């Protein structure tokens, strides 16, 4: 927000800003900053314990030292008990801080110690070209891993790299799944071992391995014998069914043949009877005129009886005609005229 009463500065028309003298910049000027202790330290004068993250008003000094085009900065603080001057500076190679004067670090992780040893070797000999190339390659790899870690932390602030996981990604969920699978596998192995132990105890209680083997052999033999008996019974049943089926089919065929033969015989007999009937009709049956004469003669001579031939078999159809002629007596006019009552009809 702007001020309630703005300050108006008057610049005359003939004012030339180039004629105004400029302030000279101080090259190594101390800058006051507010910071926290980067690690726990102990004062060398009064043995005062300075905890990590304790706040101080410090002076910031930019040194002329460089590391891979990174400026190294020095900080000046005082002991809160004895006003002893304590200095520490940045360490880009270890990505941390290093104490200089007035205090010592209480504890230091192994990784930081290893990095400091690499950063400050004991031999003060100048590095060769091969050593410089190896160091630069190692630092480049570390820088790449740091960038990967930085990208991972952007998406998940609790992400941590673990070499034991797949591709070294260090995914927490994959680690959890891997542990769960390993735990399930261990539980299955323990259950299987318990079953084996219980089985061994049961075997020992029932006489040992030999007795169990003998009992198992007996059970196998009994199973084999029962299976053989069942197979034999099944074969017998199948054979009986096959024979019964064959007999029934044979009986059906015989009955069919008998029926066909009986039908043929009946047919032949009927044909013979028809032939005989035709012959009788031709031989035995007289004409109408002869029958009328016979009827007239029987009327005058009742003692005369017509005899049939012995060789020809008598049929009912032949017997009907003379009976009718005999039953119906001829009249006087018919006898005189010489014809019977059948002709009138």
Mind explaining what this structure looks like?
The structure is a single chain. The protein has 345 residues and is an alpha+beta fold. Among the domains are: 27-119, no CATH class; 138-205, no CATH class; 287-337, no CATH class. The protein has helices at 110-119, 129-155, 172-205, 208-283, 288-300, 316-327, 332-337, 341-344, and strands at residues 31-36, 41-43, 49-50, 55-67, 70-78, 85-91, 96-101, 103-105. The protein has a five-stranded antiparallel beta sheet with strand order 1-4-5-6-7, with no helix packed on it. It has a three-stranded antiparallel beta sheet with strand order 3-2-8, with no helix packed on it. A hairpin with a 2-residue loop joins strand 4 (55-67) and strand 5 (70-78). The longest helix is centred in the last third of the chain and has 76 residues, at 208-283. The model is unreliable at 299-307, 315-327 and 340-345 (pLDDT under 50).
Determine the structural class based on helices, strands and strand pairing: alpha+beta
Strand content: 5-15%
Radius of gyration: 70 Å
- Low-confidence stretches are 299-307, 315-327, 340-345
How many beta-strand elements?
8
Give the overall shape, derived from the CA principal axes. Answer: elongated
What are the secondary-structure elements, in order, as H or E? EEEEEEEEHHHHHHHH
Strand order of the largest sheet: 1-4-5-6-7
In whole angstroms, the N-to-C terminal distance is 155 Å
Described by strand count, sense and barrel closure, the largest sheet is:
5 strands, antiparallel
Output mean pLDDT: 77
The number of helical runs is 8
Tell me the helix content.
Answer: 40-55%
